[in-house]
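Residues determine shape. Next comes a sample protein:
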Amino acid sequence: MLCGFGVRRLAGKLFDFIAADRGNVAAIFAFALVPLLGFIGAAIDYSRAVAARTSMQAALDSAVLMAAKDLAQGTITTSQISAKVQSYFTGLFTYNGAQSIVVSATYTAPSGSGNATIQATGAGEIKSDFMQIVGYPKLGFSTSSTSTWGASLLRVALVLDNTGSMANYNKLGSLQSAATSLVSQLSKLAAKDGDVYISVIPFEIDVNVGTSNVGASWLRWDLWDPKNYPNASAPYQTYCSGGYWMTYAQCVGHGYSWNHTPNTSNKSQWNGCVTDRDQNYDTLSTAPSSTGTFFIADQDQSCPTAPILPLTYNWTAVNNTINAMTAQGATNQTIGLLWGWLSLLQQAPMNAPAESPTNTYQHIIVLFTDGLNTGDRWYGDFQSTSTQVDNRMSTLCTNIKNSGVTIYAVQIDTDGAGPSAVLPACASDTSKSFLLTQSSQIATAFSQIGTSIAKLHVSR
């Protein structure tokens, strides 16, 4: 250990060395100082160049993502991509001291072997503070970013409210316009046929599976009666002992008696409607294999005019189904959601296209409704909100999300009924829940959903 005298003596010697101007001491120190300053200065200049490159990387990543979204939404063409990337980059790159910035972007169209990409490159330089001493007045840096979309294949179910109140405030027309725009937006994400599939599920109390399924093995006919009214003198009274506007299945489900013997042998009068299947299968995706799991043929007079459309990439068929929708009937969101879920599965009754184990798939339901649940096969008077139907739906929503499906939930409330008690929680997260008050807002909501679904992937 050095004593106080030793420390003073060592300090004195060091001072003598620094102050020395005789012999080789000063020269040695001078020669040593140049590379020492060079190393320190190089570290400082290099760290500034790294910071500039990092800032450029972040700006490029954001710029190509934003340009790709614009392209997917149809707001720019492929010839405008480079200019758009440069414009976005200029607004995003804020590093002070960078010079001679050059940014360019190229677009590669989708092909059978690859997805569409936008690749951007950037380069620049900074003026060095120390490296110029050793002959490097400037330090250059460069980076690149590639945006690829369509890498995750899409399976999207559009579950759309067709109830009577959709006729008000141009809600149905606005929905049809917004939904077809969403179809156009999503279809552009496909590199090839089959990368994007869309199904359409119009619903009210029931869904229409189409009369072409009259012979399907998964249908039940024991609660079906083609006649709902006893005679012309009582046009609003069904054969149900205690309920108006009820079908055979709804009447029995609500605990009433059906005062008619149906002729189930003649199914030619069936309108394609099905109602909720037995509990708890009304909230489960169980494939039909026995009576309890079969789907119950119904004869709802307000059956959706547009039958459900299984997953397809025939965009004309998708748009035709959307445009064929009409407004009638009461609200049972549960049955629409269930069939939306079923449309994403490779099993009866919807038999979705097979999925390759080598690909990644996003399974998505977009639920749109303008009302609150008022009835199903067992509960509700079809006019007032039914907490019991909400409870069935809440269970179903949980089961769907637990299966890995993403749910977007959109409610439009033009009548002041207030937000649904179940829809916000049904959505996968708060960013996927929308409460609208005007028909003009539907287009914006669907556009936001389309942008979210795109889920662009950035790779370097």
Remarks:
- The chain is about 35% helix and 20% strand.
- Residues 243 and 251 are 7 Å apart (CA to CA).
- The chain has two domains: 23-149, 153-458.
